[in-house]
Amino acid sequence: MSDAIEVQGLGQRFGEVVALDGLDLSVPAGTVFGLLGPNGAGKTTLVRILATLLAPGAGRAAVLGYDVVREPLAVRRRIGLAGQFAAVDEELTGRENVEMIARLYRLPIADARRRAADILERFELVEAADRRVSTYSGGMRRRLDLAAGLLGRPPVVLLDEPTTGLDPRSRQDLWRIVDELRREGTTVLLTTQYLDEADRLAQRIAVVDRGRIAAQGTAAELKAAVGTMILSVRLADRAVAHDASEALGGLGAADKPHVDAADGEIRLAVDDPGASAEAVRRLDARQFQIASVELHQPTLDDVFLTLTGQAPATQATEPTLEQEAA
Which CATH number fits domain 227-297: 3.40.50.280, 3.30.70.100, 2.40.420.20, 3.40.50.2020? Predict the structure, then answer.
């Protein structure tokens, strides 16, 4: 399978913030590729470079073989783009928004109307098509924004955290659309902070940490890489979590367990089911009171914790697509 997106040694800074630090990435054609990481990890910066909105500080990137710096027009003709916030005109109706974009593609009026009608039906916006967008819910606006981005039938779609802030029903609607795009052969690069979203949609996932790829593979491969099981120990006294974690050193795959002091929880990847009994013995010997002990299969959350030593959370921020446009 050929690669639709190729990135080699990509680097970018914003003042003292290193957004991308020699990032390498290949996205196979016809797949949904999930880019998983917290705010500030470099995901939006990568999308901006691939969309030709930002020149890379170092390295190179290509979409369908077209270099984003030397051939930006060719790249733009082959991509669709949707950011974290819907970029539609609230004073126009849904239909007027879509027809306007169709006309920008230089379609004849009749073709623009026909294409707009087709895509409004596909995105289940027919009933609201002649209402002003200012009356739309957040999920409807996001669907309209994505619909407008797909009017040109691009072979590559860049989705930068498209479900941020949406309710569960709207998220499910967008997930359905992404699935449909993949089945039609469209390549989708999906950036997300939501672990369940990457697990549900992506055939391959890359975990981004501080502007670099920490690991990549299928969801199953990433989960298997961190250990057979995850041991979670919650203490009765949250204040002693860090002290208690020292008693569990060397018990798991990582040198040190991950500690969530706010919840009084200690988590570590283990291969031996007997590790849970050993953890209880060690903590009991030092008189740490245990509230609960749980052994479960790894999730993508556990992958991120093991690889980066932190939960998906806000780091130093990079500009969003919308801030760049402003």
Answer: 3.30.70.100
